[in-house]
């Protein structure tokens, strides 16, 4: 999925995205658990933090907004990276 998104932003990013190795596997209760009153687990696969060390050196958060009423709707976070491999935004 991430590879397909990267292709839409900049096709040259696809090899970089595809080269990220996934190391961390864990399971967590998914959002369907409450709906069905059964323990429905989601498998979570993540890269280790050191996969991105070379790209993270110049990342700076420039905006962090939480709406007054709480929740996720309307939340915004924005970072800039002067060391980014592409100038596009997503």
Description:
With 90 residues, the protein is α+β, with helices and mostly antiparallel strands. 23% of the residues lie in helices and 28% in strands. The chain is built from 4 helices and 4 strands, in the order H-H-E-H-E-H-E-E. A two-stranded antiparallel ribbon has the order 1-2. Strands 3-4 form a two-stranded antiparallel ribbon. The model has no long low-confidence stretch (mean pLDDT 82).
Backbone shape: extended
> Element order, helices and strands?
HHEHEHEE
Q: What structural class results from the helix and strand content?
A: alpha+beta
How many beta-strand elements? Answer: 4
Radius of gyration in whole Å, from Cα? Answer: 17 Å
Percent in strands: 25-35%
The number of helices is 4
Taking the alpha carbons of the first and last residues, their distance comes to 14 Å
Averaging pLDDT over every residue, what do you get?
Answer: 82
Question: Characteristics of this structure?
Answer:
90 residues; alpha+beta; two-stranded antiparallel sheet; 4 helices; 23% helix; 28% strand; extended
């Amino acid at each position: 999925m991430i590879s397909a998104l990267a292709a839409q932003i900049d096709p040259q990013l696809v090899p970089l995205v595809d080269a990220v190795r996934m190391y961390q596997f864990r399971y967590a209760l998914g959002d369907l658990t409450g709906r069905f009153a059964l323990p429905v687990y989601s498998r979570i696969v993540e890269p280790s933090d050191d996969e991105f060390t070379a790209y993270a050196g110049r990342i700076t958060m420039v905006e962090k907004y939480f709406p007054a009423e709480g929740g996720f709707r309307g939340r915004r976070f924005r970072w800039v990276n002067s060391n980014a491999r592409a100038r596009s935004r997503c």
